[in-house]
Design a protein that fits this description.
- The protein is α+β, with helices and mostly antiparallel strands.
- Helix content is 36%, strand content 23%.
- It has helices at residues 5-19, 74-83, 178-182, 188-194, 200-207, 212-224, 249-252, 263-313, 316-327, 360-403, 408-420, 459-469, 498-510; strands at 23-28, 34-41, 44-51, 58-62, 87-93, 99-107, 113-121, 128-133, 138-142, 171-172, 195-196, 231-234, 240-244, 256-259, 338-342, 349-353, 443-446, 452-455, 475-479, 487-490, 520-526, 530-531, 542-543, 547-551, 561-568.
- The longest helix is centred in the middle third of the chain and has 51 residues, at 263-313.
- The chain is elongated.
């Protein structure tokens, strides 16, 4: 990531040009290490985003407001108390470092004007956001408190005097001389060790340049004059690889280049695509772990129930022992541990174990009793096995949804469903806040013929689509015996072409556990033949009169038949 001192300098200039003398109206904390400030300026309202996430620390403007938690976190409440209504009086960069200082004037509880400073330290795993009282120089609080146990060099705690991060034994890029630039070796790592405030990408660019002095001065002049050309470098799959405020030869030839009008837009594009999938995976990780733990229990329960059922089904010997003992009571003598009798069904000799404490008649009754229990157990175990399999099917479908998405909103919806069904504990809420009401928002596609296809993102949306949205004559699709989404083709009973069915089936296969497979079987039938049994888990339905096609998973632009269609099942 190329968020270095040069980028910090450029962002500070962008902030100065945009929000200086602006008024902070709202403060939000979407995540534990993120802040969003709504700032009113003469040029309009702006949203300033700041993160001290170790992987992607940054400060820049954003257009879309991130989703906020139902209850504000403690640091957010503190900032609202101290900064709401505050006016920004100064924005500056500390030396050549990745430290941004925003000074504000606000009113205290008594109505007197006080000065505060919000400091953003963008330093990898040591990144932080700190609120300081300018008059005393003391820390009011920080989003990440650093105690003596964590760092013996520099503590960040309320009440302590704020100290800047320790200076490194490097030449600040703003103060470096031409002679010092010329003396730099053609080694990026050596340049990084010598010059402060530059990124590995800039160091690599500087190392490959013959006219280093001119390049260095051109870079500083471009930032100073705000003559930037912000760009994001993308790989063949469209994944951002790097961003910078100037062209980088290392990436210009090997990557796609997307340019932007301002640095914040480039950074928002880059980080949104770099962090959203990471954040989604992080959120999904705990859920996947919980679902897998529940599945392991269900698999073990299934194994034990199957073993018990097998034993119960092989209980005819108990009935036979009871019958033969009843017919041969005279052969049993007190104290015998077993008795040999003739099986009058086939003439063979059978040895029947006995309880020495019981009489022959009581032993026979005991075998009949065990036989009766075994017959009852067969019915009970079969019912339990069916219920257990339903839970396994449901959890496997949830696991499929979690593994097929990185979208934070979809993962939150899946969490809510798991909480509702009792597989995950409800998060503790504070301050009287409630979770926002869930609004279905299924995936929507258009077939080449123009028909709309709706796809559920979770089991609750599956039920919503199948039972609420779909008409009786619409087409319903689902992968055959494979966890996946309900797919609805809104055709209103119109006769679909074979190509339409193959395209819709490919979508159903794509939104299933078989996404990475080939030749996936997909059932399709009119919605009128799909029923949801009373008491069934979300997403569970039964259907009749279906047909089956085999397709390769794909979305509409690449969908197509894998080969064959099947008859009525």
């Amino acid at each position: 990531m190329a968020y270095d001192g040069l980028v910090t300098w450029a962002i500070v200039q962008e902030l100065q040009n945009t929000i200086l003398l602006g008024k902070i109206e709202k403060v939000y904390q979407p995540e534990a290490d993120e802040l969003v400030f709504h700032i009113h300026t003469k040029k309009g309202n702006r949203r300033l985003f700041a993160s001290c996430n170790p992987a992607h620390p940054r400060v820049h403007f954003i257009r879309e407001n991130p989703a906020n938690p139902p209850a504000p976190l403690a640091f957010c409440m503190l900032l609202r108390k101290h900064l709401s209504g505050g006016r920004i009086t100064e924005i500056q960069q500390h030396n050549s470092e990745r430290v941004i200082e925003i000074s504000l004037e606000t009113l205290n509880e008594l109505g007197f004007t006080v000065s505060k400073k919000l400091i953003f330290e963008i330093m990898g795993k040591h990144s932080n956001m700190i609120l300081v009282d300018i008059s005393t120089g003391k820390i009011i609080d920080a989003i990440k408190r650093v105690s003596f146990d964590t760092s013996r060099v520099r503590q960040i705690l309320p009440g302590l005097l704020y100290q800047y991060p320790p200076a490194q034994d490097k030449i600040p890029f703003k103060d470096i001389t031409d002679a010092q630039i010329a003396a730099l070796p053609a080694d990026p790592k050596a340049i990084l060790r010598s010059v402060g405030g530059i990124s590995p990408a800039f160091a690599a660019e500087l190392a490959m340049r013959e006219d280093r002095i001119s390049y260095f001065h051109d870079a500083k002049s471009a930032v100073s004059a705000r003559a930037l050309s912000p760009r994001v470098y993308l790989d063949a799959a469209g994944t951002p690889q790097e961003f910078y405020l100037l062209p980088l030869k290392e990436y210009e030839e090997s990557c796609q280049v997307q340019t932007f009008d301002d640095l914040s837009s480039a950074m928002e594009f880059y980080f949104d695509r770099r962090t959203s999938s990471n954040r989604g995976r992080q959120k999904a990780h705990d859920l996947i772990k919980s679902v897998n733990a529940s599945l392991d229990k269900m698999y073990l329960k299934k194994q034990r129930l199957s073993e018990d059922l097998l034993k119960a089904e092989n209980s005819e010997d108990l009935r036979l022992y009871g019958e033969l003992l009843t017919a041969n009571l005279h052969l049993v003598k007190p104290g015998m541990k077993s008795v040999d009798v003739i099986n009058y069904y086939d003439g063979s000799t059978i040895t029947i174990p006995l309880d020495v404490k019981l009489s022959a008649a009581r032993n026979a009754q005991l075998y009949f009793k065990k036989y009766g229990k075994a017959k009852t157990a067969v019915k009970e175990k079969q019912i339990q096995l069916t219920e257990n399999q339903e839970e396994i099917d449901y959890l496997e479908s949830m696991l499929t949804y979690l593994e097929n998405t990185d979208d934070v909103k979809e993962i939150d919806a899946l969490r809510a469903e798991l909480v509702e069904t009792g597989y995950v504990r409800q998060r503790r809420q504070t301050g009287g806040y409630r979770e926002k009401k869930y609004k279905p928002s299924p995936h929507k596609y258009t077939l080449s013929s123009g028909y709309t296809v709706l796809v559920g993102r979770n089991n609750k949306e599956n039920d919503y689509l199948t039972t609420k949205v779909a008409g009786n004559k619409d087409l319903w699709l689902h992968t055959k015996d494979i966890p996946g989404s309900h797919v609805i083709v809104q055709c209103g009973g119109a006769q679909l072409s074979e190509q339409d069915i193959f395209e819709a089936a490919a979508i159903a296969a794509y939104h299933s556990k078989a996404r990475s497979s080939e030749n996936v079987p997909v059932d399709y039938v009119q919605v009128r033949n799909v029923k949801k049994p009373a008491g069934a888990k979300p997403g569970m339905v039964i259907f009749t009169g279906n047909r089956t096609v085999w397709v390769n998973p794909a979305l509409p632009q690449t969908a197509g038949p894998a080969g064959k269609a099947g008859g009525r099942q």
